[in-house]
Structures are given as structure tokens and as C-alpha cells.
Backbone:
């Protein structure tokens, strides 16, 4: 495939059935975002993706669940450290 000539635009990227870029559905993208921002919701989206019949969605589901669990553990560690005064601030 050659580079586009003057005045020509690049060929469009292939799209999945739901309008998302091939390889990622909108639910996949939402799952990854939620895994970092709201990990419990990301976990739920990961389970939904894991139960999908398509293999690509199931693979994203596994990664979304893993990221959600790691972020939940990090949030819990931060809360515990803050509650015990291990946050690095001055002790009273």
C-alpha cells in the first residue's frame, strides 16, 4: 500500500460491527476506562465481556478483570495506609 498522493485522503481504518475501531468494541474501551477509574464497575464490565461468545471480547474481559482487581488492591492499600498514618505526612 503506498502513501496517499496530494489531495487524496488515507484509506479508512477497518471498523467492527458496532462502529468501533476493529479489535475494540465500545464496551471494551469503557471497561478499560472503568477498570482504572471505578474498578468495581470495571470488574462488572469485565465479567460481561468474559461471558460473550466471541473470543476477542472474552480476552479483553480477562484483562479488564485483572486491571480492576489490581486497582482495587491499590485503592485498599492506600486507604489502609492513610488510616494507619503511613501516608508519609507528619505524625501528631
Residues:
Amino acid at each position: 500500500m503506498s502513501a496517499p498522493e496530494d489531495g487524496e485522503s488515507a484509506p479508512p481504518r477497518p471498523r467492527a460491527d458496532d462502529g468501533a475501531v476493529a479489535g475494540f468494541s465500545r464496551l471494551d474501551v469503557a471497561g478499560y476506562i472503568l477498570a482504572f477509574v471505578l474498578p468495581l464497575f470495571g470488574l462488572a464490565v469485565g465479567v460481561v465481556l468474559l461471558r460473550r461468545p466471541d473470543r476477542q471480547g472474552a480476552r479483553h474481559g480477562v484483562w479488564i478483570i485483572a486491571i480492576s482487581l489490581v486497582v482495587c488492591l491499590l485503592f485498599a492499600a492506600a486507604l489502609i495506609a492513610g488510616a494507619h498514618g503511613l501516608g508519609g505526612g507528619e505524625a501528631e
In short: The helical segments are 26-37, 39-50, 55-83. The CA atoms of residues 13 and 57 lie 20 Å apart.
